[in-house]
Amino acid sequence: MTSPVALIAEDEPLLADALRTMLAQTWPGLHVLPVAPDGTSAIAAIAQTQPDVVFLDISMPGATGLDVARACARLARPPQIVFVTAFDRFALDAFDAAAVDYLLKPVEPDRLARTVARVRERLAVPDGNTLSQLLTTLRTHLEAGAPSGQQDGAPAPRDAPPTDAREYLHFVRASVRDEIRIVPVEDVCFFEAADKYVVVATTDGDLLIRTSLRELMPQLDPSRFWQVHRSTVVNVAEVVSAQHTPLGRLTLKLKRRKDRVAVSRQYAHLFRQM
């Protein structure tokens, strides 16, 4: 019997190496192919090598993990897909009963072991509908509350009422040095984009989450968090006042931070009545 084959699609080399090492310990008989560093190369590698399972980062250059999964669904023999991401998106418990899994970074050995057990069970009893069922479930959760015609991954309008309060984040997992901290969203003063990360500005300092602001926005309650700049989302409860600088720019004074949050002209109308 041939060894099962896996592909890791991850644009962060250190994270890819860590996952490869953990897989070697958790699934010794697994043959892991060279890492695909972006979504485009992942699609090509999967079509060429036809792996049994793909550990797929959602946020990658070239093509997103969702794009890769959709490409896999068109294959005659689609692989098992395990999504790996740094952010807790929506109702992850929906995937506990699914054919594949959804791992949060940093990946924990015990959690990976459960994922491996689930994948091995599915490989033993192939089901051609597994991937299509996953994509349907994933799309339902990612697009929940989005109006008809809205593109995948696009933020919902900021005045859209929530369809289910449980869809919005209650906390974030953020990194500081070698720790992962659980931060209630009410303790966040603002979020600010920083390359491939988002800075989580709290009363105790700044933390990092590895996601884009665009991915984060639909997960935030629009009645509590307002986008005020292309790269900034502020907790409205933290805003004391909106003030104009001598140069005519609008900035926000916050209750528990000394930072002045800049407001772009596009969002200035939100504070005209404050």
Automatic annotation (TrEMBL):
Domain Response regulatory: 5-120
Keywords annotated in UniProt: Phosphoprotein
Superkingdom field: Bacteria
SUPFAM superfamilies registered for this protein in UniProt: CheY-like
GO molecular function, one term: DNA binding
Residues with PTM 4-aspartylphosphate: D57
Domain HTH LytTR-type: 174-274
InterPro entries: CheY-like_superfamily, LytR-like, LytTR_DNA-bd_dom, Sig_transdc_resp-reg_receiver
Protein name in UniProt: Response regulator, lytTr family protein
Species of origin: Pandoraea horticolens
